[in-house]
Amino acid sequence: MKKIFFAALFISSFSFAQQTQKPPLHGKNWMAITGKPLAATAGSMIFQKGGNAVDASCAMLAATCTMWDVLSWGGETQALIYNPKTKKVIAINAMGVAPTGATPEFFKSKGMNFPPQYGPLAATTPGTPGGICYMLAEYGTMSLKEVLAPAMDLAAGYPIEAQTANSIERGKDQIKQWPYSKQVFLTHPGEKREAPEAGEIFVQKDLLNTLTKMVEAEQNALNAGKSRKEAIYAAYDRFYKGDIADEFVRGAQEQGGLITKADLANWKPIEEEPLQTNYKGIDVYKLKQWTQGPMLLQALNILENFDLKSMGYNSARYIHTIYQAMNLSFADRDFYYGDSYFPPEEPMKGLLSKAYAKQRAAQIRMDRNDANAGPGDPYPFEGKTNPYISLLKSRGYDVKDTSNKRGFAPTHDQRQTAMLTDAAYKEALWLGTTSVEAADKEGWVVSITPSGGWLPACIAGRTGVGMSQRMQSFVLDSTINPFNVVAPGKRPRVTLTPSMALKDGKPWLSFAVQGGDTQDQNLLQFLLNMVEFGMTVQEASEAANINTNQLWLSLGGNKTSDRAPRAGNLLLHSNTPDWVRKELRSMGYTLSFEDRTSGPINAIWFDWKHGSFWGGSSNHGEDYGIGW
Predict the structure, then answer these.
(1) I need a labelling partner for 50 at 20 to 30 A (CA). Which of 43, 373, 596, 623 fits?
(2) Entry's Gene3D superfamilies (predicted)?
């Protein structure tokens, strides 16, 4: 049955009425989906107590951090929220920043080509505690005490899952380098297996103490007559300016980190206006260019110049077209995206213009892969001259043709031999986190892709808080990306990218996925699965996708060659038919195959005809949802 299902997916004219491995979720009052069953249960608990989707999403986020679902409390939070009162989508930027002393010269003096992958020098300031407090204070209805109750129960002890327990065991050699991590994670020191066993009650006393302090600060403020919002911000201040901050900084610096008390006190979450584009009547929203999110918007703009449906789902022609559109969008991401709060200003108006996308679409060769696809020139679409012509020339791009009919095509082959093994490369490409999706009958909708502080994590002192590893997404060399060079107080350009779509002014789809540089690749195809091919939200979340490796890795090794694009490298599902494989190879692709070609996608589709929610949760991983 499984082989028949995937073979059918390559036929253009069939109806997507396929049996999925997981059933779709249905609800009329609320929906809660995230990366762990216990965390989804935490969201349902909050809904059952009368909380809204913001309350529930904060509870799920707190739970996943406590369960080390490839993230922790010291990581970062990126969110989109639909506010039914204003009927607008807002963006929450709770990404931490580079600490004092984090300069290219500092890392180069240590022989590094990028900031490190692990340890205290990989850490940006923690963003998730502030993100939770901000979202809850501004848009939630409940107290921090109520919302953190499930996470605090988990910190007091929960039966750890095999996935996390085994991840601790695999990373124990690194964990032993950090004294506070060793004390928390290696519950059987000196034994053959030093990590917890699956099902063992895993206790985190230090983290519970930290969360207790935050709740105490809130409750003391309430007892002093402060409002719900003011009390939540009192908890925020204790984390970023009080005794929690003191211990976090002490523990980080003791282990060689750079974060200072001023770094914590000066950081704050930011509410932003998201970027958007319209694809066939659907308004798609993404976070700004400090994430990779606009890449999906660029790809949609390019792809609307093609009749994708007539090509047939996952036909060779369809795969080729998607691959080429993603490569052009990633080339722009890799050179032009960065922290919008630091100069220079990114040319986003040009990058997201329909005219620019039409020009980029015209550059696609339909007969074979363009191994030398490079960044385009969006500046003329803003009425400006590109200030980076000389830099692009230094990289070997031919910019003499000012009409830019092909984009900045390299004058010589810039492909580099990747030094990472295939296993290490895939780990860097797919490196996962989690996602949180929530919606309620009042109209609140939340999509979050949090991350940071994943295992093996370096814990900051007695806080129980694992530090972020997001510094590795910076570059030290402006020739790679002049907008994303590390600097104190600056946000790295991250892969984290929640998504939301509206149709006729009403929520239509809320969706997110884990998986590093594959996130927007998978989300793009997931969206097209529904828009172009009429799949249900569960069918689309399970459907076979493709991955391009023709991009600069945002995470991974220290060698430039480790992160360099692998031109023509294409990941396909293992059930791809032979005739599709043959045609793609003839077009210059190097193929690899996996049973999993998509990270765990979580999504909510809004069925306005029937007044209900449809939930989708991928058949890969532990992701789980509950609706009512």
Answers:
(1) 623
(2) 1.10.246.130, 3.60.20.40
DSSP string, 272-337: EPPEEEEETTEEEEE--TTBSTHHHHHHHHHHTTS-HHHH-TT-HHHHHHHHHHHHHHHHHHHHH-
Question: pLDDT tens, 523-546?
Answer: 999 999 999 999 999 999 999 999
Tokens 């509410």 belong to 271
- pLDDT for residue 425: 54
Can you tell me the distance from the alpha carbon of 566 to that of 548, in angstroms, rounded to the nearest whole number? 9
How many residues does this entry show for the chain? 628
Taking residues 581-600, report their average pLDDT: 92
Contacts of 348 (CB under 8 A, 6+ apart): 275, 288, 289, 294, 340
Copy the structure tokens of residue 416: 């580099």
* Residue 52, SS3 per DSSP: coil
CA–CA separation, 530 and 534 (whole Å): 5
- Decide: residue 154, CB within 10 A, 0-12 exposed, 13-18 middle, 19+ buried: buried
Q: How close are the terminal C-alpha atoms of the chain, in Å?
A: 31
Nearest to 29 by CA among 438, 437, 436, 440: 440
Report helix, strand or coil for 522: helix
Residue 290 and residue 494 in contact, taking contact as beta carbons nearer than 8 Å: yes
Residue whose tokens read 């039914």: 84
Helix (H) or strand (E) holding 590: strand 590-594
Q: What phi and psi, each to the nearest 5 degrees, are found at residue 92?
A: -115, 120
Strands 499-503 and 506-513: antiparallel
CB 615 within 8 A of CB 625: yes
Q: Are 568 and 371 in contact (CB under 8 A)?
A: yes
Dihedral of CA 359/360/365/371: which sign?
Answer: positive
Q: Give the residues across from 625 on adjacent strands.
A: 33
CB atoms within 10 A of CB 383: 8
Instruction: Taking the CA atoms of 262, 472, 328 and 392 in sequence, report the sign of the dihedral they define.
Output: positive
